[in-house]
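User: Assemble these into one structure.

Assistant: Restating your components, then the assembled model:
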Amino acid sequence: MDKNTQTEIFFGPNHPGVPGNYGINYEFEGDTVTSARANAGHLHRGFEKLMEERIWIKNTALVPRICVEEPDINEMVYAMGFEAIGEIEVPRRADYIRSIILELARIQGHIFSIGGNAAGIGQYTVMHWGTLTRDYLLDIFEEITGARVYHIYIRPGGVRQDIEDETLDKILDLMDELENERFPDLQKALFENPNAQKRWQGKAVITKEEAIEMGATGPVLRANGVPHDLRKMMPYAAYDDVEFEVPTGENGDAWDRIKIARDDMLQSIKIIRQLINKIPDGPVQADLGNGLKYKIPKGDAYVKIESKRGEYGYYMVSDGSLKPYRVHVRGASTPLGLYGVREFLPGTRIADVPVWAKSLGICPPEFDR
Amino acid sequence: MRNEKDLLQLMNAHFEPLKLEIKRKQNVSVEFKKEELIQALSFLKSHSYRHLSTISCVDWPEEGEFELVYHLFSYDDLINISLKTRIKRDPGIFQTAKEIWPVAEFYERDIHDFFGVKFKGNDNLEELILENWQEIPPMRKDFDTRKFVNDKYEWRDYNGQKHTD
Amino acid sequence: MNNNFVKGSWQEILDWAQNKSINMLHYCTGCGAIELPPTMTSRYDMSRFGIGPAATPRQADLLLVTGYLSTKTLRRLIYTYEQMQAPKFVVGFGSCTINGGMYWDSYNTIKQLDKYLPVEMYIAGCMPRPEAILDGLLKLKKMIADGEADGYQRYQDNLEYYHQNQEAVLGEVQRTQ
């Protein structure tokens, strides 16, 4: 290969096209990427070490910060790990509330990432609409939990406080508005837009075999027609009480993934309606005693749930003391962000690199930790 | 489709696990001797456990050991299995699983960054997450983050005086 | 007419002009960046105050440090800052830039941003709401108009102090000049 036609470029961390504070160093020839390497670690804060330094309850404030796109997922996995080791039963109402919160968070995350994806191909209107729609959901979160982004709401043994009936009605109203007004607009502006279609179709293809081999889950796997979803395969919270479908695609490309995000939101709306109709009365927090003295027996557990980008897992070890002995975070996009960049980015054209990175839902803080 | 008990029987039939445990529904954990672990991984991979979630490392300084935990999942059995093994803390060397799952290379490099464990066959020891790290690997239990922070950084002075003056 | 007077009035005109149009660098250093899209887009709409995003450091006036800085990011942030052209302003965003915030005992994040770069002002909160960001940026505009935002001059005057602090944490730092 001629030395003069090959150039190395640092894409990120300071670049509007990268998903967060994360870099990709790639070489290209003409305008095709020939080799790529992830430049991760810009967001490393040493969460796993900090968690070992803090008592169990204090960590509930720390975990949502691991992935800013989907903070509630982290709270939920952490609480589930604690409950699995301590064999704690969660009240049924708390399970329902958790599921409602997780589904609201899923819609919030999807709509935001659809906006981000659209911005990646220059559809800024959709980005504006997506961000605005997300704000309606954040308002609901604020009403329930008191905070916009980091809620610290799901905690070991249940949830922090009950949801009022009026809030539940508001959620139902918002779901109607999303379904009848926001999503049709989005459909016209983005999904029926031939420009967008052309930009995404056939881009960033990851086949079923490749996805399973590297451990990618969620939309990346489902875009190949495989309906794998941990909400169905290993039901947690109240997902065994609701009916929903797992949207899938056919071609494993960016276009299918973005359509899955849209269909996933519609399913979430369906789930939220069922949950609110069926929600039982009762306490929302199991009695675990003084929060500052939470203790669980010796043991370990690997817990995982379905985030909007796939499997999110924590491996937690307790030595019976006031603090966790070890917490290891497995973010949903870890294999894609580190390994996938090297294996699957080569061959992409330079203009499609942001499309590639954004449509795979790479969220750097979860593998930098 | 196997259930949890079938899986443990399968493990018992082919290997000599040190400890078998059904943690809870759909969750199994098996402890192996370190010589058998890589074999067990490739055996399980050919028995539908194709999804490697991650590799965790736990430091047990009192026993002088690192514990490596491989989390696998099968889309046919819908069971999560955690394979554990212990290696000596010093020198902290184990076999790579890169040949079985290429993605393991990055999990191993992550463990090398944070615990200093080396994996034979995985020669790329470039820093993955950290940059210019000079101390002992930070996730080891004997690394004291509070002492390190006290030594390296200055705390803000809140007595009404700006320290840049 | 003496020279100082001319220089003084000219500076006032510049300050007035500068505070009307601020280009903010698009560098998401930490999790606070998630509150910027709402601030930039239709709901809070910061472009009505004449503030908008800029893609590259060389076109930007404002470096908004959105959250904690790991040492690896700090290095890139310093490169970025040194690429920017004066007048340039740094705003620390979130508690973690002020005193470490909830990462106070993290081995990999810095604790006080103003030891490494000249900070004009901080917006506290974890993370600050869009209203707080807008309020902060309006105050920054006022500071620029009044000629109080002189961070880039402080950086030049105390170059040694800043470089010393940077090198104490990062080891060797490449300099552009």
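Chain B has a mean pLDDT of 85.
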